[in-house]
């Protein structure tokens, strides 16, 4: 199942993400695709609002940390694999514990991870033009993802 939305600003992208996150009630794994500057971290900022991450937390790209964790209605684990040397590094950050948790995992650059390490429920693709316009595609994989999208609208 796939649905698409179009955004004309960073704020609109954040609102779409916030709305999606507000509908989530349990464990979920999201693969987040997009070129550099496509708005992946902007999307996660809005998503964090929808999970009620407290205002004192500033959502940034975990490019050098690989993972940032935020408290909220559900824990949010934001991963950025852009600088990942190998999938073996994921073992050192406790990925098994994160995957087993009841939180939401969002992985930027999931294509740099060995296939099957995380079973993603939803893939989100951000494509931008030379301005601020974005096409945001939501692609469900598995029952959780399909159920989420079936009930989602902006």
UniProtKB/TrEMBL annotation:
Keyword Cytoplasm on entry: yes
One annotated GO biological process: tRNA threonylcarbamoyladenosine modification
Coarse class of the protein's main subcellular location: cytoplasm
GO cellular component, one term: cytoplasm
Gene Ontology molecular functions: ATP binding; metal ion binding
UniProt signal peptide: none
SUPFAM superfamilies recorded: P-loop containing nucleoside triphosphate hydrolases (SSF52540)
UniProt subcellular location: Cytoplasm
UniProt keywords, alphabetically: ATP-binding, Cytoplasm, Magnesium, Metal-binding, Nucleotide-binding, tRNA processing
Database matches in InterPro entries: P-loop_NTPase, T6A_TsaE
The family this protein is said to belong to: Belongs to the TsaE family.
Protein name: tRNA threonylcarbamoyladenosine biosynthesis protein TsaE
Organism ancestry: Bacteria, Pseudomonadati, Thermodesulfobacteriota, Desulfobacteria, Desulfobacterales
């Amino acid at each position: 199942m796939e649905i698409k939305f179009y955004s004309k600003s960073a704020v609109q992208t954040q609102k779409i993400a916030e709305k999606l996150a507000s509908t989530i009630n349990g464990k979920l794994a999201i693969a987040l695709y997009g070129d550099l500057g496509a708005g992946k971290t902007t999307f996660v900022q809005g998503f964090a609002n929808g999970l009620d991450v407290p205002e004192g937390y500033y959502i940034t790209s975990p490019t050098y940390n690989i993972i940032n964790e935020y408290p909220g209605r559900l824990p949010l684990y934001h991963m950025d694999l852009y600088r990942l040397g190998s999938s073996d590094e994921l073992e050192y950050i406790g990925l098994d514990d994160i995957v087993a948790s009841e939180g939401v995992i969002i992985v930027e650059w999931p294509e740099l991870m060995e296939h099957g390490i995380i079973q993603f429920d939803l893939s989100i693709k951000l494509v931008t033009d030379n301005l601020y316009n974005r096409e945001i595609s939501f692609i469900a994989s598995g029952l959780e993802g399909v159920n989420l999208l079936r009930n989602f609208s902006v």
